[in-house]
Amino acid sequence: MTNFIRLIARNRLAAFGGIMLVLLVLLCLITPWLPLDDPNITSPENRLKPPLSAGHLLGTDALGRDILSRLLWGTRVSLAVGIAASLVAAFFGSLIGIVAGYFGGRTDNTMMRGIDMLMAFPYILLALAIVAVLGPGLMNALYAIAIVNIPFFARNIRGVTVGIAHREFIDAARLSGKGHIRILASEILPNVLPVIVITMSTTVGWMILETAGLSFLGLGAQPPQADLGSMLGEGRRMMLNAPHVAVLPGLVIFLLVMSINLLGDGIRDALDPRLKSGALSRPAPFTHIRRRQVPPENGSAANALLDVQDLHTHFEVGRRTHRAVNGVSFTIRHNECLGLVGESGSGKSVTALSLLGLVASPPGVITEGRIALEGRDLLDLPHRSIRRIRGRNVAYVFQDPLSTLHPLFRVGHQLIEAIQQHQAIPRQEARELAVSLLDQVRIPNAERRADQYPHELSGGMRQRVGIAMALANNPQLIVADEPTTALDVTVQAQILALIQNLRETKGTSVLFITHDFGVVSQVCDRVAVMYAGRIVEIGPTADILDDPRHPYTQRLIDCVPRLGEPNNEPAAIPGLPPAADALPEGCAFADRCDLAEDACLRGDIALRATDSDRQVRCIKPLGLPTRQGVMQ
Amino acid sequence: MSKPLLEIRGLTRTFGGGRRWFGHDIPGVHAIQGIDLDVAQGETLGIVGESGCGKSSLARLLVGLDTPTAGQILFAGEDLQALRKKDRYALSRRLQYVFQDPLSSLNPRKRIRDILAAPLRHLRGLEGTALDRRLSELMEVVNLRPEFISRYPHEFSGGQAQRIGIARALAAEPKLLVLDEPVSALDVSIQAQVLKLLRRLKDEFDLTYLFISHDLSVVEAISDRIAVMYFGRIIEQAPSRRLFHSPAHPYTRLLLDSAPVPGGPPIRAESGESELPDPLAPPPGCSFAPRCPKAEPDCRQAVPLLDTLGQRGDHRVACHHPIEGPWRRLDTQEVNETANE
Ligand SMILES: Nc1ncnc2c1ncn2[C@@H]1O[C@H](COP(=O)(O)OP(=O)(O)OP(=O)(O)O)[C@@H](O)[C@H]1O
Ligand code: SF4
Ligand code: SF4
Ligand SMILES: [Mg+2]
Fold first, then answer.
1. What are the ABC transmembrane type-1 domain coordinates in residue numbering (chain A) (predicted)?
2. What is the CATH number of the domain that holds B76?
3. Same domain, B129 and B172
4. Mean pLDDT across the stretch A416-445?
5. How far apart (Å, rounded) are the C-alpha atoms in residues B98 and B166?
6. Any CB–CB contact under 8 A between B193 and chain A?
7. pLDDT at A326 over 80
8. Which of A267, A456, B107, B250 could, after both became Cys, cross-link A169 (CB 3.0–4.6 A)?
9. What pTM value is reported for the model?
10. Cβ of B80 under 8 Å from any chain A Cβ?
11. B273 belongs to a structural domain
């Protein structure tokens, strides 16, 4: 709750609206105790006094009534009617929306058709018609305004409810023995309540305006009762000789509606979960880089395609710093496939995205490191050069191909765009190239498939298109982030074969991110194991799988069930990895490690070479020859 | 084998379809086509198959989240649909469901206490101190710290959330748990923790499991018996050891050939399209025929029925030309040969 208030306060306009509204409401609340004249007492001898006359601070109207008093009492009435109308509209509208959205099918159809019929009439005409039937009067105006606003609520709330009704926790509640009424009241309602509040806060201002409108036309408040609309209506007739009679209520309407709408927008923003996570703030096209020093060139990696040294990528969220990537170093040689394995949250994706500055900023910042592609430090290059490297030298394939494919364009068209971005060739030629790319990734009937939309393809097909996009400009390096995780094993086998084939025929290098050791052993020459933002072991795949040196690698391999060995019960690793914003000192794996000792908890543990081509970050690596023989 | 706990007979579920006011009738999509399956008390039956083959549709039919178009489900000899007409909570007291995505199966706006209390209240009629006692028992059973009970779901990791999902299912004191990909969303290290917990719970509460997964190695690790589904049908069914030793259906062999094993031999990839058939225009005869290396002309004429193989009677396969002999992953040489074909 305090958080909510802080969010509103941060939004200056909303805070301004809020303060203004509080003042207005306070004034309305204390009106009965203020030393004011009776708002309805007429005194013809005092008619149309200008503001600041004795006894009448804001003057009097055509019947000699005190305008200040009438304004305050009138605001009270307008506010009350507006709020009451929006409560009524919110109640019935939400009820219809929730019921229609939850039950769906025929119930939904019938109810929403009714709502559509209401909406078919022009809005204010409908309100007029309702008042015409019910007869003029404040209460009837209230009903009319409430009724014309019901469809607005019903549609909004129905949309949200449909989304929620299909979530799994609703099924879970059903299986817990909850009936429809209980599910509606205790599962659905709490989740749509924020939306109801948002909708109300953004409509209440309009409803006050609409009520004022009806009163202005003489259909709302009846004389002698004052509300803002009727005061405006009465004042209109003497606009020329006594403008203050109309201007003052107009001003109050303006202030009231403006303050409510400003606050309403603030409430909407504060309650919108997307805003809290910063998703609506547009990220920069390149990750911010804030390096204090640059690691020197790595002589030994001179002939590598990609050389990453001591990469640090942090997320700065509020006062916390999530150290997602915390000193990662690796090289990829020409035509090599390096696997990057690790549990969820270990920093695999952030490492991959950091390479070309694709980490969202804010909150992401690259704080240290060097990323050399054929000797050029990418973190030093101007954005223009990076943009040229993206897609041409280095291409990405993601787990969800839909994240790179636009749903509204044919896949062929998207491939042509990708090709023409880096190659100046005519469209017809690009189209031929696109079709041949689809052919290369073994899409049957490529010519026809090129004219289909992404949603017309199966998951496996889409991933092939994703790979074809990555291949469009013959990149030197493909970064594949879990490209097969969402696919069935038979499709996965085909995609893996495709990637192997590309390496053989085109000499492409691959950074292959996965959490599946089986997949690693199929496609990777070397593998790096990540834990809590660091590489804890790196070396040739077969060596690491047969003979892991880091206790974490060993435990991770042991907890994978192996096909064909049902007796070999997977051994769980107790506990959880540390949170990225609270990394411990010393070895991050220490609290889950059987071999941990005091020395593991102190200082920085370096990644050191144990064999000619293997490195491990542990003070007691497994399986190394010692003086007593092989350490166990 | 004594009388099975769960007997599924000719279970069918068709989506959509029906008559239009104008024009042709809309053809229905058969998600489940005439499934026959028995599950014995105390056993773990694994169900494997690719996405879209009907695994989850089957699971939802069993727990009563959906109603079959045809066929019968008997639980301990009683017809579930008839039982449900008498008492709408009857199913939930006997069969419970564990969801794939642990977080989306927990209402983000409810505390764990409320989530777990619902089945205790509505299905077991517990209140007051009895309810509290049972709540702390449940937390203990799934290895969660007691103070977690007053937290909200988003404060939990995937593995912890899945334990809550399991506790919620156990609260109803069911006899049978339908676990729909319960560890697929979890990391391997967490997956092993949850599998271990599931094994322990099964012994402790004398449960029967129907364990659905697309991951062969996970299913093998936990199941006594396995049924393989393809395109809405069960195409092979056998005790776990036997199925992995000598799978008889070409599709089962394809699955095994495609699954990568750490340090294992290279996997084999199908050369053609590896797509499920179009459900709106199913192929005639065996639905696997378009992909099957063993397909013969007769395969495209008659749908093969699930039939026992050999004398033992516990291995059943739906194929006109089942493959005999033990399965062995093709070695590298053969892979090259297939590639050159
Ligand atoms: N936009 C962000 N804001 C704050 N923290 C983030 C953001 N993106 C990622 N993180 C954090 O960075 C860490 C590493 O995340 P990353 O996505 O690289 O993990 P991963 O190894 O790819 O995991 P997975 O296997 O789930 O894909 C995590 O702790 C994550 O919470
Ligand atoms: S450094 Fe210590 S705690 Fe860390 S993995 Fe090695 S032995 Fe275990
Ligand atoms: S019936 Fe024929 S097509 Fe179907 S799986 Fe058996 S051999 Fe293959
Ligand atoms: Mg990732």
1. 75-264
2. 3.40.50.300
3. yes
4. 88
5. 6
6. yes
7. yes
8. B107
9. 0.83
10. no
11. no
Q: How far apart are CA A252 and CA A137, in angstroms?
A: 22
Is there a cis peptide before residue B4, judged by omega within 30 degrees of 0?
no
Contact between B201 and B166 under an 8 Å Cβ cutoff? The reply is yes
Q: Are residues B135 and B256 both part of a single domain?
A: no
Spell out which residues line ligand 1, taking CB within 6 angstroms. Answer: A 315, 317, 322, 324, 342, 344-350, 360, 363, 515, 580
The answer for residues whose C-beta is within 8 angstroms of residue A482's C-beta and 6 or more apart is A398, A399, A513, A514, A515
B292 ligand 3 Cβ < 6 A: yes
Q: Report the C-alpha gap between B241 and B238 in whole angstroms.
A: 8
SS (H, E, C) A330-390: EEECCCCEEEEECCCCCCHHHHHHHCCCCCCCCCEEEEEEEEEECCEEHHHCCHHHHHHHE
Tally the domains of chain B: 2
Task: Show me where the domains of chain A are located.
Answer: 2-32+69-271, 408-474
A471 forms beta bridges with: none
Tally helices (H) and strands (E) across chain B. 11, 12
Q: What is the pLDDT of residue A463?
A: 84
Give the pairing type, strands B29-39 and B6-15: antiparallel
Q: Quote the pLDDT of residue A630.
A: 45
pLDDT tens-place string over residues A492-534: 898 899 889 889 998 999 999 998 899 999 999 999 999 999 9
- Superfamily of segment(s) A2-32+69-271: MetI-like (1.10.3720.10)
Closest CB to B101 among A168, A490, A564: A168
Tell me how far apart the alpha carbons of residues A180 and A184 are, in angstroms, rounded to a whole number.
Answer: 6
The reply to whether B332 and B187 lie within a common domain is no
Placement of tokens 């036997």 in the chain? B242
Query: Could you list the residue range(s) of the whole structural domain that residue B296 is in?
Result: 247-260+282-341
Nearest Cα residue to A510 out of A377, A333, A303: A333
Residues B9, B141 within the same domain: yes
Q: Is B286 exposed, middle or buried (0-12, 13-18, 19+ CB in 10 A)?
A: buried
Mean pLDDT calculated for residue range A357-368 = 87
pLDDT digits 0-9 by tens, A227-242: 888 888 888 888 888 8
| Interchain CB contact of B300 with A (< 8 Å) | no
Asked if the model's pLDDT at residue B336 lies above 60, the reply is: no
- Mean pLDDT, residues A416-430 taken together: 90
pLDDT for B18 beyond 80: no
Report pLDDT for A84: 93
ipTM for this prediction: 0.87
DSSP B149-209: GGS-GGGS-HHHHHHHHHHHHHHT--SEEEEESTTTTS-HHHHHHHHHHHHHHHHHHT-EE
Average pLDDT for B97-118: 91
- The nearest alpha carbon in chain A to B260 belongs to A518
One DSSP character per residue, A519-535 reads HHHHH-SEEEEEETTEE
pLDDT for position B158: 84
Nearest Cα residue to B148 out of B180, B111, B184, B120: B111
Q: Please say if the pLDDT value at position B332 is more than 60.
A: no
Chain A positions in Cβ-Cβ contact with residue B191 (cut-off 8 Å): 559, 570
Number of H helices, E strands in chain A: 22, 15
Distance B12 CA to ligand 3 centre (A): 22
Residue B19 lies in a domain: no
- Residue B197 tokens read as 């917990």
Tens-digit pLDDT profile for residues A110-166 = 999 999 888 888 878 888 888 889 888 889 999 999 999 999 999 999 999 998 998
